[in-house]
Design brief:
Elements lengths: L8 H21 L7 E4 L29 E5 L3 E3 L2 E10 L2 E12 L2 H21 L11 H19 L1
Antiparallel strand pairs: 1-5, 2-4, 3-4, 4-5
Length: 160
């Protein structure tokens, strides 16, 4: 008796396996792919700090900004594997009073929720640390690294 005869259990197993594999291939190939969305805030109307920062993030991250008066500076847009990250800081008399990510990855709802949490944590850390020497947020490593680089470029622009 041949193992793949019409009434053989092995034939049913082979056919069921082939149907399952075919169905999985079809399901995976029909998954919709949408391009990542990038959200950017409008430029701050009170940018008194001159042009947007364009220097590299090579300065000492532990040293704080040195300036007087109120100044708002936007750092470089740093490209990460998930999308660009850009930070804007506001300084009053040399002290960082506000930090905000104006651009960060929002490709899907889960990533958006995670990055919103991470950006909130990074903003708070920036004001507390008064420098780019801040911790990476777990689960948002690339966004955190891009945030730190953009923040450092904004601090470099403040220093001149």
């Amino acid at each position: 008796m041949h193992p793949l005869k019409r009434t053989s259990p092995l034939r049913r197993i082979v056919l069921a396996s082939a149907a399952t594999v075919s169905a999985m291939v079809l399901l995976l190939s029909l998954k919709p792919h949408s391009p990542p969305e990038i959200t950017a805030a409008a430029p701050a109307p009170s940018d008194t700090g001159g042009p947007t920062a364009r220097s590299s993030a090579s300065a000492n991250p532990r040293s704080g900004p040195t300036t007087t008066g109120t100044k708002t500076v936007t750092g470089d847009a740093i490209e990460t594997i998930w999308g660009p990250v850009q930070v804007r800081i506001t300084l009053e008399d040399g002290k960082i009073t506000k930090s905000a990510a104006v651009i960060y990855p929002k490709a899907d709802p889960l990533e958006e929720q995670l990055n919103e949490y991470a950006v909130q944590q990074l903003n708070q850390q920036t004001v507390a640390a008064q420098s780019a020497d801040i911790d990476v947020v777990s689960g948002a490593t690339y966004t955190s690294q891009g945030y730190r680089q953009s923040l450092q470029s904004a601090l470099d622009a403040v220093r001149g």
